[in-house]
Amino acid sequence: MAASSCARVFPPFECRSDPDFSGAPRPEKFSAKLRAAENRGACAGLSSLIFRFPPNFVRQLSTKARRKLQQHRRRPGGGRVVVEQSGRRRFRSGGGGCGRRRCLPRAAVFVFELRWECVAVHAGERLGRGIVTDAITTPVVNTSAYFFKTTAELIDFKEKRHASFEYGRYGNPTTVVAEEKISALEGAESTLLMASGMCASTALLLALVPAGGHIVTTTDCYRKTRIFIETILPKMGIKATVIDPADIGALESALDKNNVTLFFTESPTNPFLRCVDIELVSKLCHDKGTLVCIDGTFATPLNQKALALGADIVLHSATKFIGGHNDVLAGCISGSEKLITTVRNLHHILGGALNPNAAYLIIRGMKTLHLRVQQQNSTALRMAEILEAHPKVKRVYYPGLPSHPEHHIAKRQMTGFGGVVSFEVDGDLLTTAKFVDSLKIPYIAPSFGGCESIVDQPAIMSYWDLTQSERAKYGIMDNLVRFSFRS
């Protein structure tokens, strides 16, 4: 439909009311100069963010640069940024450049470091948003539809000469700001926000896996995702091969024996926090023409850059760490414009649109994401070490511990190990429930990643409808506890 293609080309407006809003296109001469500089290696190894400073110095985010981050490996401290500045300026090249002074007519290129916490605060807002306002915070646009001034303008929209969301299900300016912020953190060309994490998972699977297709997934995962894969997808003739997260041989076998469309897994997984070697599985899958989707909810975009490691799509339940305040439901997928557009087109049909007030809460939550994640990483690691040494704890599951089976993988592909720790108490179901009830600070509740500590006993919280033996098939023992530490 028309809205599907127009939502992503919504023109970026400056965020102040006083500058010139002429929106003049960048001179072709400058683009040629920039390409020439890149070919000479002066800008080699740059990350995804390119900011253009026109004469009025209003900053705008460029889509072109976001593509670069997928070619650029994750950086623990932050991303390299290219800044284009109109006008004749002398500068000394940075990064992999030769260090000689250069002078480019009409434009110059500067390279500097931008830390991820700055990206989380400013991306999509100060750096250009689709709402003309001088407000520091992004306004909430509560509307169900968008009007056209004339019938001629409507026809221009239908024939793709005019940009508009047209209808609230197809997009919202407040939601776009949140999407741009997540794209900047993930180094993605595009992001799609939806009403929940499960909405994002199901829409993605329905959009990318054809009827009669085949997917590979892992044993440890969110239960509702498993239910959808095991009960709903087979109705469309879609088969699934389930493997252990660390069993590379099983993955290779599944890829050789089947025409696999998608490898779908969490990393770290829920609730045992198993880690998949994203770089390795991406290479194996891409050699067979298989897409890779990583659910990075437990990792967050700060601890793990799945797209930079080779994945095609990264998914998050934004309800958790991204929102971070236990007050909003949302889910998102990030990746190439082509793949996200495919999912977006189906999403426009199915619904599940994010309320703009929820989008505002996501924006608000992301401004403190780096502070919260940093504290949660630190607290969870310290508590995992304490629990592992405690005589009444049988086993601890946390990728930051050397005892974790994929600790070596987590150290290589993550900069922090997350705020959730799972462990087994030395006791039975009732003993474990007594332990949970005796805790004074955490809430007994589902979910995780917020400002409040949350604890649950998965055998009761998520698997109580199954018998003890049925739970054991999924590794869910009666004494298992999952603890999400507050920020």
UniProtKB/TrEMBL annotation:
InterPro entries: CGS1/2, Cys/Met-Metab_PyrdxlP-dep_enz, Cys_met_metab_PP, PyrdxlP-dep_Trfase, PyrdxlP-dep_Trfase_major, PyrdxlP-dep_Trfase_small. It is an enzyme of class 2 (transferase). The keyword Transferase applies. Residues 67-86 are annotated as: Disordered. Its cofactor is pyridoxal 5'-phosphate. Residues 67-77 have a biased composition (Basic residues). One of its GO terms (biological process) is transsulfuration. Keywords: Pyridoxal phosphate, Transferase. GO terms for cellular component: chloroplast. PROSITE patterns: CYS_MET_METAB_PP. It catalyses: O-succinyl-L-homoserine + L-cysteine = L,L-cystathionine + succinate + H(+); O-phospho-L-homoserine + L-cysteine = L,L-cystathionine + phosphate. The keyword Transferase applies. Pathway: Amino-acid biosynthesis; L-methionine biosynthesis via de novo pathway; L-cystathionine from O-succinyl-L-homoserine: step 1/1. GO terms for molecular function: cystathionine gamma-synthase activity; pyridoxal phosphate binding. Its EC number is 2.5.1.160. Transmembrane segments: none annotated. Belongs to the trans-sulfuration enzymes family. This is plant cystathionine gamma-synthase. It comes from Actinidia rufa.
